[in-house]
Amino acid sequence: MDPWLIWLVIALVLAIAEIFTFTAALGILATAAVATAGTAAIGLPLLGQLVVFSVVSTAGVVLIRPWARRMMLQPRLERFGVEALVGASAYVLREVNGHEGLVRLRGEDWTARPYDESLVIPAGSTVDVLHIDGTTAVVYPRE
To answer: What is the DSSP letter of 35?
Structure first.
């Protein structure tokens, strides 16, 4: 079997292993194996192939790892789930007081209570969501 074909098989095995592990290291090694297959195809001896594999692997780790680490440590800019509802405006469907209330928030009906228990917000008002407490939106009136 030709050496370049062996390197391509190694690259394929590493790429498949990368799909199942999501480590990125195996992907870098697969890329190095493909580059080494190219050098083997032009006739570079085995020692030269191993040097190419080592250099490309090391360069991949040195260049890709810091970038990947920065991307993983960056805070998420978008909010999901109930976090995305904080700060949104809602329409009061049923009077919101310290014991009960109902608001329409982004097309859904949510139970609500005011941030101040003594506050009463009449139906038809617009409120802002302060935070979500379980399944209840804690709101304050927009003035």
So the answer is: H
